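User: I want to check something. If I give you two sequences, will you return the structure for each one separately, not as a complex?

Assistant: Yes, each is folded on its own. Here is the first sequence with its structure:
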Amino acid sequence: MKQYLDPKHDLTFKRVFGEHKHLCMSLLNSMLPLKKPIKSIEYQSGELIPELDILRNTIVDVRCIDTDERQFIVEMQLFWYESFKQRVLLNASKAYVKQLEKGDKIKMLQPVYSLNFINEIFEKSPEMKNEYYHHYQIVNINDTEKQIEGLEFVFIELPKFKPQNRAEKKLHELWLRFLTEINESTKKISDELLNESEISEAIGFVERSAYSKEQLDAYDKWKIDLLSAISMLDDAESKGIAKGMAKGIEKGKLNIAKKLKNRGLPFDQISEITDLSVEQIEIL
């Protein structure tokens, strides 16, 4: 029986979408509200790392550019923290501005699209209960048809997604099912996924047999660290709430960060888990 890894993991997500252009292009075309579909992409080398150490955790998962020189940034985020939107804005803005380094005139700058998959629910209001897809643009408040083009953002709350079998959204739904239905406990994969060639190919790239022992060891360590971090964070928040003090939660986050640091977890991952800055983690 075949065994699978979770495609939301950093290792598998980058294997599927960071190494296979046609799969990344299919994902982008199915998720983004583009006026013109993407025909071809090239991956962009180099990271969008700011000069400030406190922001060193803003490394993205996949970045590419199409034949029209539109840029696309794709991220998988397992933890939600309030500053994540600012991080996304920073990365997209930096990618937009970096076009000037090639000597382009301002009027020639091409748009940047930021696609973000979130494995947590962050829009918790009753009216947003069933809304998993969030599209942001820079628009006129009184006339949203008037837009300042250049930056667009999409946030997808994976836990809220429920397939509706819409023909016009077929690949959109199949890719989201790929990200939400497949994990280590998967025994049987739906024929709907296997019968779509691109999805079926992606499934092959998350089979456990497709990875080396070293990669699997790293994956399993990540899973253990993830579960430990979630448990510690929940415990810290519970104690903080019980005390009625924000300081209790903050102290809990610092303790978690220190333990994860001692385990050798990368600072950027610790930052994502605890919502502490890399600078705070470094001095622990």
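And separately, the second sequence with its own structure:
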Amino acid sequence: MAIRGSITSVVIFDENLYRPTGLVGKWMTKVTTRFVAEAMAAAPVDTGELVAGISGDTNRLGPRQIQGTISSSAPHTMWVIRGTGFPVKGSEGRIYTTKGFVTRDKADAYVSLWGHTPRGGKFTRYGRGDKTGPGRRMKTQVRKKGYWLRLPFPSRSGGPVFAFSVAGQEPNNFLFEAWKRTGYTHSAIRRSGASFPGELT
């Protein structure tokens, strides 16, 4: 005797699709993983801190809602994305200290003082010396505090190097570039209506 059966209906709870093991959950994880890989490839490399700080995660927010998140934890991320300089509005310029940014005049970064230069070469307002000896009183320009950037490398003599300003850099929105590259493979995010540049925080 043969037994036959037929399936008359199939009930699928679509909430299951949004679980980590569901179709939507797996898809979002795949997109986020690709996004992270593209961001790491697009990020500029100097010390490697920027690339090392890029990560992604997938979270279920509700029965039918899932979210993929990418982040860059390096402290200088926004300086890379938005550019640096004067003004910091997407075009290359100069970087100053707070006081230097206000004046932008190198003459304001010095003060002229009358004093003595002892044999050790250290300038001071006070001291003894005749008009012809190494300790003679003279007018010397001295850097004002707060106007100078200390550069991260020593001078030839081994001492610190100070600069009134340094060159800025053009903006490099490597996260948005990664978003576009991910969209080439996963076309659904191109049609999602998301405004990625406006979501940067």
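Because they were folded independently, the notes below concern the second chain alone. The chain has five helices and eight strands. The CA atoms of residues 22 and 57 lie 16 Å apart.
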